[in-house]
Amino acid sequence: CYKFPLDGYYTEFSCHSAPATRIRITFDDYYLLTCSEDGCLFIFDVRKKDRVVSKRDKENVLHPADEILVTRTFLDEKQVQLQELERQVEELSNQIEFQLRHRESYHKEEMVELEEKYTNEIDQERAKYEFLREEKNDAEMESEENIKNLQERHAKQTQDL
Question: How far is CA 9 from CA 3, 47, 55, 101, in A?
């Protein structure tokens, strides 16, 4: 224990950013707890010069907690931000889905138009092919007829001679 005014060895820590509201020491005199108006709670390990750290002390070391204290307004603001971000994600998802459907329908229409165009071109080329084939057949028949006529005339002229 120290006598007032403090004239022995002590260490001064600056940890709170607001006035301390409570200071307590644990029942076993190992820890000093302080809290302040800034909402922070600090835990100090109190050691006397002659105190040897026991195995029990090493096992019971308090590890930093994963939880933190926040105000209700901070939590509400984060909740509002989260909801806004979720709404934006939903809106963007809907826009992307709409664009994909629009693009898909555009490509389907384009494909139908191209199919019609090329089907018409194929039909025209087939008709042209058939027409040319018929002309060729007619020309062949006419040529064969001309050859027959020439052969007959030639045979007739040969007989006349």
Answer: 11, 12, 26, 77
Q: Which residues contact 69 (CB under 8 A, 6 or more apart)?
A: 39, 41
Number of H helices, E strands in the chain: 2, 3
Task: Look at the block and give the residue holding tokens 């939903």.
Answer: 90
Evaluate whether residue 3 is within a structural domain. Answer: yes
Residue 28: which of 48, 11, 12 has the closest Cα? 48
Structural domain that includes position 77:
72-161
pLDDT tens for 103-141 read: 999 999 999 999 999 999 999 999 999 999 999 999 999
pLDDT at 43 over 70: yes
Distance between CA atoms of residues 21 and 33, nearest Å: 11
> Which are the contacts of 25, defined by CB distance < 8 A and separation ≥ 6?
31, 32, 33, 46
Q: Structurally, how many domains does the chain consist of?
A: 2
